[in-house]
Amino acid sequence: EVTLVESGGGLVQPGGSLTLSCVSSGFNFSGHVITWVRQPPGKGLEWVSTIYSDDSGYYPDSLKGRFTISRDTIKNTVYLEITDLEPEDTAVYHCELGSGPSANSRGPGTQVTVSS
């Protein structure tokens, strides 16, 4: 069973930055597709970013430029860097294995709150 755990969330002022981490015990991230999704309060899940086996990252048009996904194969960690945070970025951020409807092993999430 694959277990993913997110960390790095917190309370940040608008305009600030955060880097979220996604780690797994017993599973090697290298070469696998990993996706970040988020759930704002009172809303459904939103796709944030996906990293593919060649380490290329993809984002919805609405988030391009402020979000960067990356992978460290030595630390077996996938990162999501968020810059110029906006109150609308407030959400629980989850990582999961794969992408789209077939994604699985979603972690419990890390809370990001953007507020002054």
Could you explain the architecture of this structure?
The chain is mainly beta. The protein has strands spanning 3-7, 10-12, 18-25, 34-39, 46-51, 57-58, 67-72, 77-82, 91-97, 110-114. A 6-stranded mixed β-sheet has the order 2-10-9-4-5-6, with no helix packed on it.
Task: Give descriptors for this structure.
mainly beta; six-stranded mixed β-sheet; 10 strands
Task: State the helical fraction.
Answer: under 10%
* Uncertain ranges: none
- Give the neighbour order of strands across the main sheet: 2-10-9-4-5-6
Q: Tell me the major beta sheet.
A: 6 strands, mixed
Count of DSSP E strands? 10
- Average pLDDT metric: 95
User: Count the helices. How many?
Assistant: 0
Q: Provide the structure class.
A: mainly beta
State which percent range the strand residues make up. Answer: over 45%
* Pattern of helices and strands: EEEEEEEEEE
Q: Please state the overall shape, judged from the principal axes of the Cα atoms.
A: globular
| Rg computed from alpha carbons, rounded to a whole number of angstroms | 13 Å
End-to-end C-alpha gap: 40 Å
Can you summarize this structure?
With 116 residues, the protein is mostly beta strands. It has no helices and ten strands. It is globular.
List the helices and strands and how they pair.
Layout: E1 3-7, E2 10-12, E3 18-25, E4 34-39, E5 46-51, E6 57-58, E7 67-72, E8 77-82, E9 91-97, E10 110-114
Parallel strand pairs: 2-10
Antiparallel strand pairs: 1-3, 3-8, 4-5, 4-9, 5-6, 7-8, 9-10
